[in-house]
Amino acid sequence: MSNKSFQILIIGGGAAGVTVASQLMKKNNNLRIAILEPSENHYYQPAWTLVGGGVYQFEDTVKHEDKLIPRGVTWIKDFAENVDPNQNQVTTKTGQIINYDYLVVCPGVQIKWDSITGFRDTVGKNNVTSNYVKEVVDYTWETINNFKGGTAIFTFPAGAIKCPGAPQKIMYMAEETFAKNGVRDKTKIIYANATGKMFGVPAYCKPLEEIVQRKGIEVKYGHNLIELKPDTQEAVFAVNDGENVTIKYDMIHVSPAMKAPDFISSSAIGNEGGWVDVDKFTCQHNQYPNIFALGDASSIPTSKTAAAIRKEAPVVVNNILALMAQQKPIDKYAGYACCPLVTGYGKTIMAEFDYTKEPTPSFPLDPTKERASMWLVKRYALPWIYWNRMLKGEPFEADSWRFLLK
């Protein structure tokens, strides 16, 4: 099997990979670029919360990969198996060897199934669900809407997770659905949070604390789910003092911890935690200057969201082009991330922030308040932006949506 060679090889055809490829081709459509991506389908995962809440169709979150990869970019439908940064080569699962001048690593993350005993065999049935498992997102809504009362648990794990706000978003919609269906008064809702706070950015903690109090939700901090016992409908949590606590449930929504794909931790490009070891500002690898990473699998210390990728992508693109022109990569990512915190149907706190852990609102409004306008942004504007602007490499600024504030 002969080797393939490209100027730029992108591992991953998700939000980050397609966006970077599109922006590169808009800057220079003569570049020889390949995307290494095994999946036929591309998913708009930020909408899975809304699917689980019954207000969005799962099929509307899916498009075929070949409809999104920009013209002129080669799609290699295979898995990355090994990265050899010293030889500038990637080996695929089928044994292909791909040479590159520059490598962009953005394969996303995978669920740490073994972190919760019984989770893999239980999720998707017996009122155990998760919006992080695409095969059972529709089952989340089925479970919530058919709930007859009892104890409903929603979990947040120790360790990395994609979109840290999502575990509580679905909980707020579930609470309102229980009320609408007449079972709220016979339902106990528990938010089992492995951390010690509601959100990682202080400015947004207080309003979220007020919301769970208003909704009558019991928050158990320092509770990390480690086992599910479906036969007895029991969830086992490791608590801060080293002991385990068992809580019976009638339904449970699980948010599992996640990790980068194994080929990263097994190669020289990964750090001790298994993430691609890059500078948090330039997105450039700390040891191999022709390698960049962005998105969920990188070591960049910000929330793993599509919004973060939207700001990381142009930094990666401009810094690669600078290197190709024998210039120093100087573009910097400031750590911007956005988490539209859905707090109920028709209500959202648009949590935007950066490395300073301070709010960085795109709109001239107090970002810590629940707003109907931000629900419209989450429900309608952001999916449109994703498919029609971001993945096509087109610029977007929030000014385009000022009409939502009127």
Can you walk me through this structure?
The protein is of the alpha/beta class and 406 residues long. It folds into two domains: 4-109 and 260-333, FAD/NAD(P)-binding domain (3-Layer(bba) Sandwich); 112-257, 3-Layer(bba) Sandwich (FAD/NAD(P)-binding domain). 25% of the residues lie in helices and 25% in strands. It is built from nine helices and 21 strands. The protein has helices spanning 15-27, 48-52, 119-122, 137-145, 166-180, 202-215, 262-265, 306-324, 372-390, and strands at residues 4-11, 33-36, 41-43, 62-64, 74-76, 80-84, 89-92, 97-105, 110-111, 128-129, 150-156, 187-193, 218-221, 223-229, 234-239, 244-248, 251-253, 258-259, 291-293, 337-344, 347-353. Strands 1, 2, 5, 6, 7, 8 and 19 form a seven-stranded mixed sheet that branches. Helix 1 runs parallel beside helix 8 (306-324). The longest helix has 19 residues, at 306-324. Residues 401-406 have low confidence and may be disordered.
